[in-house]
Amino acid sequence: MSEPEQFPPRQQFGLAAAVYAVRPDGHILLLKRGEGTALAGQFFLPGGLVEHDELPIDGARRELQEESGLVIGELYPVGSYPMHIYGGLFLQLTYWGVVDGDAVVLSHEHDAHQWVDPNDMLAFMTDDVIASIAEGKAHVTALLGHIRNDLVTYLRVRPAGA
């Protein structure tokens, strides 16, 4: 006797977390991915894989500290989106919080950093720019579209002045 078909079909995702690390002036931290990493040469939020038995919010806090040397206070949820990276499907959870200070110490995974106004970042993320970065790769186009939508959510949920 065969087992009944599952509905909906089971999907398995790895879990990742990223942080909108916000300075008191409202600028957010972006880190440039180093050679040999996924999407090398591009700027992204600090973040990475959540470890086994680690809460996503703790993973976000840890990844920020490991990748930038920054410590962050309270974290607040922003959103989530799927992403295909490192040959697998991941669910990315995003958080935001205010950092104390802006002296970044980069990890070996990154080549540079910049603090950007999130409104300027959103204005930059046009369909043409996304297409240029993606170079015809559908999964990169989808990822950048999700990132743009997440940024819109961040701008909506953050309190005025953050």
Contiguous low-pLDDT stretches (5 residues minimum) are none
Please estimate the helix content: 25-40%
Q: How large is the share of residues in beta strands?
A: 25-35%
> What overall geometry do the principal axes of the alpha carbons give?
globular
What structural category do the secondary elements indicate? alpha+beta
Mean pLDDT: 91
Q: SSE order in H/E notation?
A: EEEEHEEEHHH
CATH superfamily: Nucleoside Triphosphate Pyrophosphohydrolase
Strand order of the largest sheet: 4-1-6-5
The number of domains is 1
* Oligomer kind: single chain
Tell me what the structure shows:
The chain is an alpha+beta fold and 162 residues long. It has a single domain, classed as Nucleoside Triphosphate Pyrophosphohydrolase, CATH 3.90.79.10. The chain has helices spanning 56-68, 118-124, 127-134, 138-157; strands at 14-22, 28-33, 43-44, 47-49, 76-85, 88-98, 110-116. A four-stranded mixed beta sheet has the order 4-1-6-5, sandwiched between helices. Helix 3 packs across helix 4 (138-157). The radius of gyration is 17 Å and the shape is globular. The mean pLDDT is 91.
